[in-house]
Design goal:
alpha+beta; Beta-Lactamase; Heat Shock Protein 90; 3 domains; five-stranded antiparallel sheet; five-stranded mixed sheet; 10 helices; elongated
C-alpha cells in the first residue's frame, strides 16, 4: 500500500469515527465490518461486540421482513435508498431511525458489501407528532369556538325575542293609557299588564346578571342548616298561581337530614325546576312529582314530569350557557335558557350536582344531590 493510500484510509477512518450519525458496513456475507462510535452511542453496543455479527443485529423481529426487502431494493438500485423504521437498543428499547444505505462494489462492479448511515429521528418524530397533535387541538378548539359562536348567536336571537315581547306589550299598553278614553277597570287591567311584563323583563335581565355574577364568583352566600322538605313546601306555596292546571305530588322522606346552604339560592333552584316542569308539560297530563330522599348518604331531590323530555344528546348541553334546545315543539314556550346553567352554578357552590334523565314513558327526571349537613354538638 502506498503512503498516499495509507493517508487516505486514515482520513476516511477519522471521518467515520468523527461522524455524528451511526455508520455501519457489512461484507458480502452480511457480517458487520464497520461500527463507528456514533453507532455505539445510538445502540449501546460496543464495536467489539458488533463487528463480525450479522448486519441485522439491531433489527427487531417484527421488522426483519421489512429489512430484507429493503436490502434487496438497495442491491438492485444504482443510488442510495432511504428507510424510516425502528431499531433496537442494547437495553431493549426501540428508537426511530432513518437509514440511508448503498451497495459497496469493487472496481470490477462486484458486490463486496453494504454501507449504512443511521440517524436517530426520535426528536423529529416527537416534534412532528406534537405538531400534529397541536394542529388537531387547534382544529378542535376552532370547531368548539364555531359551535359556541353559533349557539351564542341563537341565544342572542332568542333573548332578543324574549326581551322584545314584554317591551312591545309595555309600549302598546302605555300608548293605550295615553291615548284612549278608558274606564277605571280598563286602566287597572292595562296597568297590571304593564307591571307583569316589567316584572318578566326584570327577571330575564336578572338571570343574565346573576349568571355573570355566579360565573365570576361574586355571588354573596349566606349558609345555614336547611330542611329541603320545608324549602320545597315554601316554593310550591308561592308558585300556586303558576302551577294551577297541573297536579303536583310530593313524596318526602320525613327523616331527611338537613343540608347546609343559602336558602334564597336553593329556593331559586327548586323554582327553576318546577317552572320548567310546568312549562314543558301539558296541563292535565300526568302529575309532576317532587321526591326527596337519600342517595349514598347525600340528600336528593328529584323533579319528574311527563312533558317534552330532553333528547339524550342534549342532556348536558342544557346546563351550559346558551344551551337552550331549539326545536319545533318549544315554539311559544318562553325562556332564555339561563335557568339551568344558574341552577348548576348554585349547586356547584354548594358542592352539589344536577343532572337529567328520561322519564317513562315521556318527560324528564331532574336529580339534585347535595351533601347532608354535618351535625354539631
Amino acid at each position: 500500500m502506498s503512503e498516499r493510500s495509507a493517508r487516505d484510509l486514515a482520513l476516511l477512518a477519522a471521518i467515520i469515527a468523527a461522524a455524528g450519525d451511526a455508520i455501519t458496513s457489512t461484507d458480502r456475507d452480511g457480517r458487520i465490518t464497520t461500527w463507528n462510535p456514533a453507532a455505539e452511542r445510538l445502540f449501546g453496543i460496543a464495536t467489539a461486540d458488533a463487528v463480525g455479527h450479522p448486519g441485522g443485529l439491531t433489527v427487531p423481529g417484527e421488522y426483519v421482513a421489512e429489512w430484507i426487502r429493503f436490502l434487496n431494493q438497495v442491491r438492485m438500485a444504482s443510488t442510495p435508498r432511504t428507510l424510516h423504521t425502528k431499531r433496537g437498543r442494547q437495553d431493549g428499547t426501540l428508537v426511530d431511525v432513518a437509514i440511508v444505505a448503498a451497495t459497496l462494489r469493487d472496481p470490477n462492479g462486484a458486490v463486496i458489501g453494504d454501507v449504512s448511515i443511521v440517524r436517530d429521528t426520535s426528536e423529529q418524530k416527537r416534534a412532528a407528532l406534537a405538531t400534529t397533535e397541536l394542529v388537531h387541538q387547534l382544529q378542535a378548539a376552532n370547531h368548539a369556538l364555531a359551535q359556541l359562536n353559533a349557539t351564542k348567536s341563537e341565544f342572542v336571537a332568542t333573548i332578543s325575542h324574549e326581551f322584545r315581547t314584554p317591551l312591545t306589550s309595555i309600549q302598546g299598553f302605555s300608548e293605550l293609557l295615553d291615548s284612549a278614553e278608558l274606564t277605571p277597570d280598563e286602566v287597572r287591567t292595562f296597568a297590571r299588564a304593564i307591571n307583569q311584563n316589567a316584572l318578566r323583563l326584570g327577571r330575564m335581565i336578572g338571570n343574565v346578571l346573576d349568571l355573570e355574577s355566579l360565573e365570576a364568583g361574586h355571588q354573596q352566600i349566606s349558609r345555614a342548616p336547611l330542611s329541603l322538605n320545608q324549602l320545597v313546601v315554601r316554593v310550591l306555596d308561592v308558585m300556586q298561581a303558576l302551577t294551577a292546571g297541573h297536579r303536583i305530588v310530593t313524596r318526602f322522606d320525613p327523616a331527611l337530614p338537613d343540608i347546609h346552604g343559602d336558602a334564597d339560592l336553593m329556593e331559586r333552584v327548586v323554582i327553576n325546576l318546577v317552572s320548567n316542569a310546568v312549562k314543558y308539560s301539558p296541563a292535565g297530563s300526568s302529575p309532576i312529582m317532587l321526591t326527596t330522599g337519600l342517595r349514598h348518604g347525600d340528600v336528593e331531590l328529584t323533579v319528574a314530569d311527563a312533558g317534552l323530555g330532553v333528547p339524550a344528546e342534549h342532556r348536558e348541553t342544557i346546563f351550559a350557557r346558551y344551551g337552550r334546545i331549539a326545536r319545533p315543539e318549544q315554539v311559544g314556550i318562553e325562556g332564555t335558557g339561563l335557568g339551568l346553567p344558574i341552577a348548576r352554578h348554585i349547586l356547584e357552590i354548594h358542592n352539589g350536582r344536577i343532572w337529567v334523565e328520561a322519564n317513562s314513558p315521556t318527560g324528564s327526571i331532574f336529580h339534585v344531590v347535595l351533601p347532608a349537613a354535618v351535625a354539631t354538638t
